[in-house]
Amino acid sequence: MSNTYSKLLLMLVLIFPLLGISQTTTTNESSFPDKILSVKIIGRDDPWVGVTYEKLVSEHLGLEGQIGLFGASVGVKYYFLVPKIKSVNFSIGTSPGYGISGVRAYFPIAVNFWSQRNYRYSFDIGPNISLGNEDTNVSFSFKIGKGF
């Protein structure tokens, strides 16, 4: 068993730095930040309130992790339009998480506004499905973040 764990640990150590050196998304006007740190100030998905880190791995795809009050989640987002400064774009995604209400899968549809100084204001809404029982409800969240 320990041999399997050491191989897994070695693989993670070799692959994890690739996330830090991937290219920054560029537009015709300027370079766009590929990392976004946000504060979730209102949310009905897990976690309700917390901190979100997102890494844009391509012009249309982002990986997201959240941790906060009453839970944590990880997810994937797809942006329909390439994010640009001073623009509005839309995204969809999935974000399985664990919180006060158990294990859930959230499928948000979001509206994102990017300001002049790389601030992002994001509102999302979508179904939140419980994986432990038949409970499904509509959830939402509002985030304010900064790209760097």
Please explain how this structure is put together.
By secondary structure, this protein is mainly beta. The protein has two helices and nine strands, in the order ααβββββββββ. Strands 1, 2, 3, 4, 5, 6, 7, 8 and 9 form a nine-stranded antiparallel beta sheet that branches. The longest helix has 14 residues, at 2-15. The protein starts with a helix and ends with a strand.
Radius of gyration: 16 Å
Q: Provide the β-strand percentage band.
A: over 45%
Mean pLDDT equals 82
Sheet with the most strands? 9 strands, antiparallel
The secondary-structure element order is: HHEEEEEEEEE
Q: Number of helix segments?
A: 2
Q: Kindly state the percentage of residues in helix.
A: 10-25%
* Quaternary structure state of the chains depicted: single chain
Poorly predicted parts: 8-13, 15-29
* Strands, count: 9
Cα(first) to Cα(last) distance is: 40 Å
Q: Structural class given helices, strands, pairing? A: mainly beta
- Identify the overall geometry: elongated
